[in-house]
Design a protein that fits this description.
With 602 residues, the chain is an alpha/beta fold. Helix content is 49%, strand content 10%. Helix 8 links the parallel strand 7 (218-222) and strand 8 (251-256).
């Protein structure tokens, strides 16, 4: 095969320098003759020197032309010698000549030492900058943390409450362990697997478990680590990440918080040359370019899938979406069993009862709950964690830290007591409401002066209209009790009013539960699937008359349920007074105690 050599300008420069050097030395060697200084003096005495050029160390000259002997005007040079010494040496007929001291080494060092000093200072400064900013010297390199096979202790048995998601991901493990099994049939694994779900449900833990079960390297990186202030660095890091992964295949690339990188292009009012969009474009190109059969599996996690770019979610990119949802009651029990193994518990701990009290909590919440219970036991100098600590930990997570030192005057304590008993009494009187577990007037959290704890007996996924109305009535029971007993109302019901209004507005605008408005959906704003982010209330899809009708219906629902709660409390005014008095004495009462007061025998 013919070899092609690249042309370089350096070849020309070196060739010219060599030619000039050779020419210089040839001129010196053949044109100018070097003679001893004594010979120069003799030629001078004989009158053969025609002309000279004198410098501090050297004499150059030309001899006269002697036509008789055929001598030409030869060029010569000689090194100068001190005149006094030359006269003395010539007197005794001694041949002598001068010699210039070589200054090559001295001249060389005068150049080398400053250069070395400059290089040393530059190296020291770069080392110092690199120490303060570790990424300075590797701006275009991937920042992914690489976990090798023996560095990932997480397995599927360490992840609980997400059985469906684990079953989906078992195929990935099988592919990484035995890719030939899929290739024989002609199938291929999805290029990208997107884990979606609320925060704290274990998406990152699941990805690590897949790597741990597969026994392959695990590249972990956050979406925000790709995007930098320098244009082009994010795209360079994406390229470097995929290059590293291909060298270590089979392996897993995991991008956490993908929404920081993969937000839909055009959002935010920035043009197509935005650094984040360039990084996203590079990711799309890399996902199109790599072959899934090489053993590189791309996984990502997000809790905001609704804002991701559609190009990321199409088949051939992230074409498998795995939901990692909030665990149900059975899932919460399994998660609690895993975390409870790490602490010492007493015999009275009922995991099923704790799971009932923690409806809606995710894995991170349950881990925090177990830790809070253990800390409470240590604070009380107990050797084991009892059920009492778990119950108080649930209250602390749900309602906040108790503030027993907050001074509340007697009048306010009385208002809070009737308010909370009003909530509980209406909830106990209406069907379809969650059972009342505990009532307290001990201040908690930032602004809560008291609370009524209702614990659902089972997970609910649908709510009937009557149940929603009863829930609104329960929320308004506190305000109704204040008006009934004191003839006035306080600011303590502001949170109850907000929640009741939200339920009523959703019934009218989203659930079609209003006869006057009809079975029409009016909520056009885009809600987040997994985050409690308030959506913008846009009223561009219906008329002002419809908006007035919706507001009127919401007001009528609230008013009707308020009157219902007030009627229940008027009917059971005796229980309301006795319950409030008991709560003022004990500060905390169980739901069973209030239920006992409602029995006819009492």
């Amino acid at each position: 095969m013919e070899k092609h050599h690249k042309f370089s300008i350096w070849y020309v420069l070196v060739g010219v320098w060599i030619v000039l050097l050779v020419q210089h030395y040839l001129m010196l060697a053949f044109s100018i003759k070097t003679i001893p200084y004594s010979e120069f003096l003799k030629l001078l005495e004989e009158g053969k020197v025609a002309e000279v050029a004198v410098t501090s160390n050297e004499i150059q000259g030309r001899l006269r032309v002697d036509t008789a002997v055929g001598e030409k005007g030869m060029l010569f040079r000689t090194v100068r010698v001190d005149p006094d010494i030359s006269e003395l040496l010539a007197k005794y007929n001694v041949t002598f000549r001068g010699q210039v001291e070589s200054t090559f080494l001295r001249d060389l060092m005068s150049w080398v030492i400053p250069i070395l000093l400059f290089v040393g200072i530059w190296y020291f400064m770069m080392r110092k900058i690199a120490g303060q900013h570790p990424g300075f010297m590797t701006l275009g390199k991937s920042k992914a943390k690489v976990y090798m096979e023996d560095e990932i202790p997480v397995r599927f048995k360490d992840v609980a409450g997400v059985d469906e998601a684990k079953q989906e991901l078992m195929e990935v493990v099988e592919f990484l362990k035995n890719p030939e099994k899929f290739q024989e049939v002609g199938g291929r694994m999805p290029k990208g697997i997107l884990l979606v779900g609320p925060p704290g449900t274990g998406k990152t833990l699941l990805a690590k478990a897949v790597a741990g079960e597969s026994g392959v390297p695990f590249f972990s990186m956050s979406g925000s680590e790709f995007v930098e202030m320098f244009v082009g660095l994010g795209a360079a890091r994406v390229r470097d990440l995929f290059d590293q992964a291909k060298k270590r295949a089979p392996c897993i690339i995991f991008i956490d918080e993908l929404d920081a990188l993969g937000k839909a292009r055009g959002l935010g009012g920035v043009g197509g040359h935005d650094e984040r969009e360039q990084t996203l474009n590079q990711l799309l190109v890399e996902m199109d370019g790599f072959d899934p059969n090489v053993g590189v599996v791309l996984m990502a996690a997000t809790n905001r899938p609704e804002i991701l770019d559609p190009a990321l979610l199409r088949p051939g990119r992230f074409d498998r979406h795995v939901l990692v949802d909030r665990p149900d009651k059975k899932g919460r029990e399994e998660i609690l069993k895993i975390h409870i193994k790490k602490i010492k518990i007493a015999d009275d701990v009922d995991i099923e009862a704790i799971a009932n009290m923690t409806s809606g909590m995710v894995g991170a919440d349950l881990a925090n709950l177990v830790n809070e219970a253990a800390l409470l036991a240590v604070r009380r100098n107990k050797k084991r964690v009892t059920m009492k600590e778990f119950e108080e930990a649930v209250e602390r997570v749900v309602a906040g830290l108790e503030k027993k030192n907050r001074v509340i005057n007697e009048e306010e304590r009385k208002i809070v007591a009737f308010h909370e008993v009003g909530h509980a009494l209406v909830a106990l009187s209406l069907p379809g409401t969650d059972p009342v577990k505990k009532i307290s007037i001990v201040p908690r959290g930032i602004a809560a002066l008291g609370y009524t704890m209702q614990v659902p007996t089972e997970d609910r996924f649908l709510m009937k209209k009557t149940e929603l109305l009863n829930r609104i009535a329960s929320l308004l029971g506190g305000r109704a009790a204040e008006e009934l007993v004191f003839g006035d109302v306080s600011t303590g019901a502001h949170n109850d009013l907000a929640r009741a209004t939200d339920i009523a507005r959703s019934m009218v605008r989203e659930y079609g539960m209003s006869e006057k408005v009809g079975q029409v959906y009016f909520a056009r704003e885009k809600h987040s699937q997994f985050l409690n982010i308030p959506a913008m209330d846009l009223r561009g899809d219906y008329s002002e008359a419809t908006a007035q009708l919706i507001d009127q219906e919401v007001r009528e629902i609230i008013s009707a349920q308020y009157e219902k709660a007030k009627g229940i409390l008027q009917e059971k005014r005796n229980v309301l007074d006795r319950g409030a008095q008991l709560l003022l004495e004990k500060e905390k009462i169980e739901g069973e105690e209030l239920k006992a007061l409602m029995s006819p025998a009492s």
